[in-house]
Amino acid sequence: DTGVSQDPRHKITKRGQNVTFRCDPISEHNRLYWYRQTLGQGPEFLTYFQNEAQLEKSRLLSDRFSAERPKGSFSTLEIQRTEQGDSAMYLCASTQGAGNEQFFGPGTRLTVL
Amino acid sequence: EDQVTQSPEALRLQEGESSSLNCSYTVSGLRGLFWYRQDPGKGPEFLFTLYSAGEEKEKERLKATLTKKESFLHITAPKPEDSATYLCAVKGSSNTGKLIFGQGTTLQVKP
Q1: CA distance A112 to B50
Q2: pLDDT tens-digit readout, B21-58
Q3: Which of A12, B3, B33, B50 is 20–30 Å from B86 (CA)?
Q4: Minimal Cβ distance to A102: which of B41, B99, B100
Q5: What is the band of A98 on the pLDDT scale with cuts at 50, 70, 90?
Q6: Burial zone of B22 (CB within 10 Å; 0-12 exposed, 13-18 middle, 19+ buried)
C-alpha cells in the first residue's frame, strides 16, 4: 500500500494527558499537511511541512500542539495537556508541490474524556 | 479571507434521481478547486481538480464544473454506493498550498 498512513486510528485519553500521532506520507511527496476535522465540518488547516521545515502554523494550533517532521519523512503531532475541545479527527495529507491534489490518510480519531 | 460554502448541507435522493451539489467560493487568486468524497470514519478521497472557469471533469456518474464564483458536482443516476459526504476545497494564492474546505454535503441515495 503506497498511500498515506496514520497511527493510531483511534485514541481515547483522559483530560490532561499527552498524546502523539504519527503520519507516514506517500514516499516521494515533499509536502505534508495536518488538518483537524470536527463532526459535521470540513477539515481545517493546522500546519504544513516542506521537507523537514515547518513553514506555517494556523492560529488554531495553540502552544499545547507541536509537530515535527525529522529528515523530511514521517511526521508526528503531539498534543500536551489535552482538553475536551481537542476531541476531533486529525488528518494528515501529502502532495508533491503546491498546486497538486493532496492525498489524505485515514485519520486519527481522538476522544478526550 | 478565503471562504467556501456548500449547499445543501444534506441531500436525499432515490436511486437513479440525478441532482447537483453546489460549492460557492471567494478566494484571492484561485490555484485550484478540489472535490473529495468522504465516507464515515475515513479520510477524504480525492475526486477532481479544476483550475479555470469553464473546465469540466468526469468520473463515472460524477461530473464537476467550474465558474468564476462556484463549482457544481453533478451526480447522474446515482446508486446507493454513492452515499457519502462530498467536500469542496479551494487553494488560494498562499504559497503554503493549504486547502480551505467547505462544510460538506452529505448525500444519501436510497434504493
Answers
A1: 38
A2: 999 999 988 889 999 999 999 999 999 999 999 999 99
A3: A12
A4: B99
A5: low
A6: middle
Among B95, B96, B102, beta carbon nearest to A42? B102
Backbone phi and psi for residue A35, each to the nearest 5 degrees, phi listed first: -130, 160
Exposed e or buried b per residue across A41-55, where buried means at least 16 C-beta atoms within 10 angstroms of its C-beta? ebbbbbbbbbeeebe
Q: Is B35 on the interface with A (CB under 8 A)?
A: no
**Which residues have CB under 8 Å from B7's CB, separation 6+?**
B21, B22, B24, B105
- Give helix then strand counts, H and E, for chain A: 0, 11
Which amino acid is located at B91 in the chain? K
DSSP state of B22: E
A39: closest chain B residue by CA: B103
